[in-house]
DNA sequence: CGCGATTTGTGCGTGTCTTCACAAGCGCTT
DNA sequence: AAGCGCTTGTGAAGACACGCACAAATCGCG
């Protein structure tokens, strides 16, 4: 329990002894708040109002207050939130007070980039091992880590107490990698492969599919285009669309 | 409905003339269904039941049926859904019947990987231009595309009718890039930079933050650890955790 | 010491999402 | 042609999330 409270509150014992169970939507927003708070702290602010923080995080202030209220009452009415205290609380709740070790499987195109992504290290995660199935890649050194063969995955995961496994392999290999991660005791997986993983209860999987994001955007593009093509709706384009962006274009205004 | 069947249309009618406005949650799942359907089609299946497809997509079958019902009635009771027809419908709704052009800004660590990611091309997106602010990188050729300077962004975006902008720059540069994309007429942005973008109404932004995903997983790790530390809950580990996977990690098992 | 300005924390109405359960519909078999 | 099994599509209920609006609490100032 790193919770050093140097000058702070000797009154208050350990602040958050029990882990409250937060709504999932709240959990997903806490990292965003945390990032905004770190920015504030770097700029010398020591308190912040919900309004300010909400704007910085891109959410409604009422939502932010409700989210933070789930952690406990760490604000001061009439003043705002203590930035440093709030950072501590959120980091504690998110389990970031201890550095978690990450194993990255698949050092292809994407995996290579992830291995070099410093956003992980700067936010409390340490990539502890790299794996790949391709013998050509095994032995390669990336960012000071040697790529191991995926056959060693389970053993190494156990030995190194890997907390989180990141799968950046082709879809065809992802399930087997997941199985090995689970066999190695890993209970959290971040999956970049475009496929559904089946894992036993108690193992959390989050999926990031880059193409899916584009497809969602594509839908909105499609919808927006079909709206501008039907001027019936009371939706006038605010900005004068550049050029002759065909209003009633059969192929949806791509023609130009 | 406007069911205007253009002379070109063969047997199969164009089916969905008007774009239904779908729940956002449904839109987010459609790409997953689509991927599962393509897998089925490759394996020779021509019909599929909601149960099967739901399993393949990792969702509840009732949810899947309700999602698909928003597109219209394209299933056959007692039989299931026609795979090819459903693919067509989903692709149409998602606006994938036309290839959308993508501009990628920031060819650093992550951007480089995205530029080479074939998952975009295989799913109907074409990366049409690369940009970076670093003069050293400008002129470099990646995957057959020459990196241009970000100053050209607005102009090129307009000229090439870029539909989607992908931001893979450091956070500090992201807002300015977004502004330039908007100025170039781009109305959909996929943001990998860890910051909030402010854009005018009518512009859609989706954010992917790799570190946030890890932090969410970290929370669940933390919660799971605090649960195993309190055996009061009726939650017994199903699988005998392999080896000496520190069940009572001193740093994690708070109370004990 | 009291008052007003300010900001948090939250009760509550509203809307969205999820899930269950079942009627309606389809094809196959007899 | 009628019955039967199977699957879709959907009404309804529950769960969850959101945002308003306001009471409660705190600070600063006269």
Summarize the structure in words.
The structure is a homodimer of 256-residue chains. With 256 residues, chain A is α/β, with parallel strands linked by helices. Chain A has helices at 24-42, 50-57, 61-71, 83-93, 109-116, 118-121, 153-159, 171-183, 210-229, and strands at 47-48, 75-76, 80-82, 100-105, 125-132, 141-142, 145-149, 164-167, 188-191, 204-207. The first copy, chain A, has three domains: 24-93, Winged helix-like DNA-binding domain superfamily/Winged helix DNA-binding domain (Arc Repressor Mutant, subunit A, Orthogonal Bundle), CATH 1.10.10.10; 100-208, 3-Layer(aba) Sandwich (Rossmann fold), CATH 3.40.50; 211-256. Helix content of chain A is 39%, strand content 16%. In chain A, strand 2 (75-76) and strand 3 form a beta hairpin. The model of chain A is unreliable at 1-16 and 232-256 (pLDDT under 50). Chains A and B meet through helix 1, helix 5, strand 9 and helix 9 of A and helix 1, helix 5, strand 9 and helix 9 of B. Chain A binds a DNA duplex (30 and 30 nucleotides) through residues 23-26, 49-51, 60-63, 65-66, 68-69, 73, 75-81.
Attribute tags:
homodimer, 256 residues, alpha/beta, Arc Repressor Mutant, subunit A, Rossmann fold, 3 domains, 7-stranded mixed beta sheet, 3-stranded antiparallel beta sheet, 9 helices, globular, disordered N terminus, disordered C terminus, DNA-binding
User: What is the helix fraction of residues of chain A, given as a range?
Assistant: 25-40%
Give the terminus-to-terminus CA distance of chain A. Answer: 62 Å
Structural class designation of chain A: alpha/beta
According to DSSP, the number of beta strands of chain A is 10
Number of domains of chain A: 3
Calculate the mean pLDDT score of chain A and round it: 86
Biggest interface and residues each: A-B, 88 and 85 residues
Beta-strand residue fraction of chain A:
15-25%
CATH architecture descriptor text of the largest domain in chain A: 3-Layer(aba) Sandwich
Q: Characterize the biggest β-sheet of chain A.
A: 7 strands, mixed
